[in-house]
Amino acid sequence: MLRSMSSCLTFVRRVLVVAAALLILAGSAPALAQSQPPQPQDEFKPVGNNPAPEQIPAAPLLIGAYIVVLGGLFFYVLSLSRRLGAVQQDVQRLEGELKRRGRG
Amino acid sequence: MPKWFSPTAILCGLMFVVSPVLIARSPDESAMGMVYKIYYYHMPSAWMFLLAPLVCGVSSALFLARGRAEDDRRAWAAAELTVLFGALTLITGPLWARRAWGTWWVWDARLTSSLVGWMIGWAYLILRRYGGPGSDKLAAGVALFGAVNVPFIFISVNYWRTIHPPTTVVPRLPVSMGVPLWFCVTAFLLLFILLMTMRLRLEVARTRLDALYVALDE
Question: Any CB–CB contact under 8 A between A90 and chain B?
């Protein structure tokens, strides 16, 4: 009798442990799901008639990006033109000097 | 400058003037909204950022093999464009990510390898500027690593876990989004060719200047 009671208690304890483990897992599942990084978009689709409301305003980021690209390219072209102009001027000056020395 | 330079520069300038109109008329993306339009300048910049180290690496390999100065000059010009287009890509990317992903930066394979590629470009330029005699060959070795990194950057989004969109988004784009994108890619490619030509001309002029100084000293 006592042996059967003890085995019954052991069974109930096991069931409780398994149930507790399942409850813990179920409770932590949303937290685990939140800690996963969002999935990448594998396709870009045009927006429909009802665009989603914006949480972070896009306009400053968009304008900033275009200013960075166009400004960066403009300043690089400007810098390159200046460097090229300066070196070509030096080349012309030295070529003139060489010609003068050749004559002298 | 070569004969084709001026007409190409005018065409490229016109394309950059027209591109914002095409971009403004293209639809917003369903999940990202308006910020998606950064893609029209981000992606072409990124492609030029991949093209430049390839040109630099191949030219450096040729320079190491043949020892010709023109290969070295091409490599140097391409390294500068690596840094330029890398900077544009690495700035516009986070501006897009802030709205699309909710964060400026993630240390995934695509972003990290891009940053490494950009730093290799800087390493090349710093070596050429401050490396002293023999730095041309040392820098050429560095450029080979930069070129090897390019396929890694390209495929990284398809093989490693990341929130960066994969390369498959480009062929799947609808016409309304594909036309402005390919228009911008063409404009950036023309600009790349023009900048390479100008930068190469600068190196040729510098070589001529050095030769003239030597001639004057003798």
Answer: yes
